[in-house]
Specification:
single chain; alpha/beta; Rossmann fold; six-stranded parallel beta sheet; five-stranded parallel beta sheet; about 35% helix; binds 3-phosphoglyceric acid; ATP-binding; glycolysis
Length: about 400
């Protein structure tokens, strides 16, 4: 096995930190298991190499030292067991020692219930490190957190390295943002500029085209002097939106502003949808999607892109009458020869709705971690592994 690209894995105790923070319904059932499925290759690799395997993750944001039944990874251990085709025992108390034999895999209960995990207390990190010979971080979704199981253990473990999922995510992001085939086109959409302002600012110094959508586009339309009626927007961020447009223009890059939009009088699935020129929006209109002319123009540009980064739907795609823009761009991304990377909950829902999973170059398992990468931030959990690798 090339796990940790190092010699001996056979008989070694391997501690794998995955991100198995999956959504559960009220009955405690997993409603979306992508992260569990994505954790399988690292675990299988370690098992195949004859390691004694421990897997852990956080689930939710529990109170440390106060374990509650709803904090349990039990449904995750069961799902992982189904995927691996073998029993995955769940160990409740494990910080002071784990009994696991070579060729076996156990799941260690929600690591965020351990005292000191969130603050990465050295006393906990040192204990975690003593549990294993090899620490493998495969948790891209938690790589923006410097916690006991994502950072501290990596400092103290005998050997520490990135697992296949974390490596693949970092490779895809590097290919998309650090060394992209150009033109590099980013779609940044969603309800608010405020939650994505740093992403827009960071991308404005790199991308060749910045497609905005949703409430974000409304604020950019305001910045372009257009009336947006009663649409969702942040008037106080119009200056920031202008600055992004100017920064892009100064590089000869472009932020396309919609030339037509789909409006309604109310925010509802059955609201009557009307296509209007962007210059004709009435005071009582709500913009709920980009118009067909805008969507077709953007789709042409996506088909000519070298790299596409996609975060956020450009309209209220949950309502069929306002889904055309998002669907058109999704299909264009699917048909484009560009390398594409997508991430974020709503984006993944759109990808699933249009059935284009196989046509996206890379779908990130990260939520906050993916957004932080787009902001240009470094990921502490990956940095410590690089530091360890450098000696
Ligand atoms: C996520 O769901 O984005 C990750 O699992 C990180 O979770 P956190 O925001 O609770 O650290």
């Amino acid at each position: 096995s090339d796990l940790c690209a190092q010699g001996k894995v056979q008989g070694q105790r391997v501690f794998i930190r995955s991100d198995l923070n999956v959504p559960l319904n009220d009955a405690g059932e997993i409603t979306e298991d992508t992260r569990v499925r994505a954790s399988v290759p690292a675990i299988e690799m370690a098992l195949k190499a004859g390691a004694a395997v421990m897997v852990t993750s956080h689930l939710g944001r529990p109170t440390e030292g106060a374990f509650k039944p709803e904090d349990s990874l039990a449904p995750v251990a069961q799902r992982l067991g189904q995927l691996l085709g073998r029993e995955v025992p769940l160990i409740a108390d494990w910080v002071d020692g784990v009994n696991v034999a070579p060729g076996q895999v156990v799941m260690l209960e929600n690591c965020r219930t351990n005292v000191g995990e969130k603050k990465n207390l050295p006393a906990l990190a040192q204990k975690l490190a003593r549990l294993c010979d090899i620490y493998v971080n495969d948790a891209f979704g938690t790589a923006h957190r410097a916690e006991g199981t994502t950072y501290g253990i990596a400092e103290y473990a005998k050997t520490a390295c990135a697992g296949p999922l974390l490596s693949a995510e970092i490779d895809a992001i590097t290919k998309a943002l650090a060394a992209p085939a150009r033109p590099l086109v980013a779609i940044v959409a969603g309800s608010k500029v405020s939650t994505k302002l740093t992403i827009l600012q960071s991308l404005s110094s790199n991308v060749d085209q910045l497609i905005v959508g949703g409430g974000i586009a409304n604020t950019f339309m305001l910045a372009a002097g257009l009336n947006i009626g009663k649409s969702l927007a942040e008037a106080d961020l119009v200056g920031d939106a202008k600055a992004v447009i100017d920064a892009m223009a100064a590089r000869g890059a472009d932020v396309p502003i919609p030339t037509d939009v789909v409006v309604a009088k109310t925010f509802a699935a059955d609201a009557e949808a009307t296509i209007k020129r962007a210059t004709d929006v009435a005071d009582d209109d709500l913009i709920l999607d980009i118009g067909p002319e805008t969507a077709a123009r953007l789709a042409e540009q996506l088909k000519k892109a070298g790299t596409i980064v996609w975060n956020g739907p450009v309209g209220v795609f949950e309502f069929d009458a306002f889904a055309h823009g998002t669907e058109t761009l999704a299909q264009a991304i699917a048909q484009s020869p560009a390398f594409s990377i997508a991430g974020g909950g709503d984006t993944l829902a759109a990808i699933a709705k249009y059935g284009i999973e196989d046509k996206i170059g890379y779908i990130s398992t990260g939520g906050g971690a993916f957004l932080e990468v787009l902001e240009g931030k470094t990921l502490p959990a990956f940095e410590i592994l690089q530091k360890r690798a450098a000696g």
